[in-house]
Amino acid sequence: MRIAVVGTGYVGLVSGACFANVGHLVTCIDLDESRITDLSNGKVPFFEPGLDAMVAENLGSGRLSFAPDMAQSVANADVVLIAVGTPTRRGDGQAELTYVHAAAKAIAVHIRNFTVVITKSTVPVGTGDEVEQMMRRANPAADFVVVSNPEFLRQGNAIKDFAYPDRIIVGIDDAQAKPVIEQLYAPISEDGNRLVFTGRRSAELTKYAANAFLAMKVSFINEIADLCEKTGADVRDVSLGLGLDPRIGPKFLAPGPGFGGSCFPKDTLALAQTGREFGSPMRLVEATIAINEQRKHAMAQRIIDTCGGDVHGKKIAVLGLTFKPNTDDLRDASSIAIIEALQGVGASIAAYDPQGTRPAQAILHDVEFCADPYAAANNAECLVLVTEWDIFRSLDFNRIHASMTSPRVVDLRNIFDPSVLQSLGFRYRGLGLPEIK
Ligand code: NAD
């Protein structure tokens, strides 16, 4: 099949590369011309494991190409994917649809034959109807169907998630689209078993419901962790026992510094706003958002408390800046709020992240970005683990102890062994753990 993908971010580029990899002919389009030039030369503009190699291979085979404008590829396409950003709109928290609308109108103008237009971007329920109307107005003669096919890939594991999906949710209100979708996904849908066809509005809402539910799980376990600390329970045991119930499941039950990233914060805000717009309050989601906001400040306060109540003039080492491991994405990362809160009370910050330094330099100010974790820890009063990159699991804590001004560790992901660190002479604080006697 011939596919045009509009938007070459994490979702568009991964989708385009994966569809090319299973044999479709894909052209990816982006407004950002320098990005298109880089991609045409095989240079992927962000870090996603395995993506460089997949892009290079499919460029080489001629199945994947890149273009700064959509005219030709949309005119030739059987399927067009909209994979542009839907950030939080200023003011009310709803998803900003400017990019989706602009892409839809431009696509409409270039359509020549029957085309299935798929919205992969996360968009509020009812957006498919709006997109369809806009496209009809932009080109009344165009023959197309608008489908909702929200994406569930996780950054850091995106290729595997795309190639081996748990489910492929497809919202269609026009049966003409069904055989096209079946053909599109035939190489990865396991005889169609992964395909779940719904109405368009249900598919749109499913994406928000999924992300809000996961975010709710995170805020829930964060509050349970706080309660563990107050009561002498151990959140690791509670999570284990909780997660063994198949109705609950073990994932997303690790306490942390609050959820961040390009999806959970904006999607929970958007769903809460949708609830307000339709007079159907999303109270659990509202609470999830509030708990998460408060969580980042509570983490900064925890660091200050661990340093004796004052960090003015003190050096704090921060390990991990990205919102999770295996990505270079800092969008809404908890590290930002925590670092800014510490800087606000006079701390100086030295940070290390395996992939996030370059994007962090554009967001964080007055931070010493270090070449490795040991340089960050040198002369620090406290070492704070924010993102659980694997390389932090094998740190040489004897070396770190010798180089710190005060050997304190605040572990916001519970990846270190408290008793080992305490035996080395560190003051250790994790999340939701009982005091070590
Ligand atoms: P992104 O910001 O990384 O990329 C969006 C790209 O679209 C940018 O390169 C931008 O230049 C381009 N663009 C914007 N308007 C355009 C237009 N009119 N024509 C051509 N290109 C245009 O975004 P992302 O993280 O890939 O997310 C895209 C969508 O997918 C969002 O709605 C997001 O919520 C959703 N989503 C993201 C993830 C994720 O893990 N990042 C997962 C599932 C769903």
How would you describe what is shown here?
- The protein is α/β, with parallel strands linked by helices and 437 residues long.
- The chain has two domains: 2-198, NAD(P)-binding Rossmann-like Domain (Rossmann fold), CATH 3.40.50; 199-437, NAD(P)-binding Rossmann-like Domain (Rossmann fold, 3-Layer(aba) Sandwich).
- It contains 17 helices and 14 strands.
- A six-stranded parallel beta sheet has the order 3-2-1-4-5-6, sandwiched between helices. A six-stranded parallel beta sheet has the order 11-10-9-12-13-14. A two-stranded parallel sheet has the order 7-8.
- Strand 10 (348-352), helix 14 (357-363) and strand 11 (367-369) form a beta-alpha-beta unit.
- The longest helix has 32 residues, at 200-231.
- The protein is globular and about 75 Å long.
- The chain starts with a strand and ends in an 8-residue tail after the last strand.
- 49% of the residues are buried.
- The mean pLDDT is 97.
Top keywords for this entry?
alpha/beta; Rossmann fold; 2 domains; six-stranded parallel β-sheet; binds nicotinamide-adenine-dinucleotide
Question: What does the secondary structure layout of this molecule look like, with pairings?
Answer:
Layout (H helix, E strand, L loop, with lengths): L1 E5 L3 H12 L3 E5 L3 H8 L10 H11 L2 E4 L3 H6 L2 E4 L15 H13 L4 E5 L7 H12 L5 E5 L9 H6 L4 E4 L5 H9 L9 E4 L1 H32 L3 H9 L20 H14 L5 H24 L8 E5 L14 H11 L3 E5 L4 H7 L3 E3 L3 H5 L4 E4 L11 H7 L4 E4 L6 H6 L3 E3 L8
Parallel strand pairs: 1-2, 1-4, 2-3, 4-5, 5-6, 7-8, 9-10, 9-12, 10-11, 12-13, 13-14
Helix pairs in contact: 1-3, 5-6, 9-11, 9-12, 11-12, 12-13
The protein binds nicotinamide-adenine-dinucleotide.
Nicotinamide-adenine-dinucleotide binds next to helix 1 and helix 5.
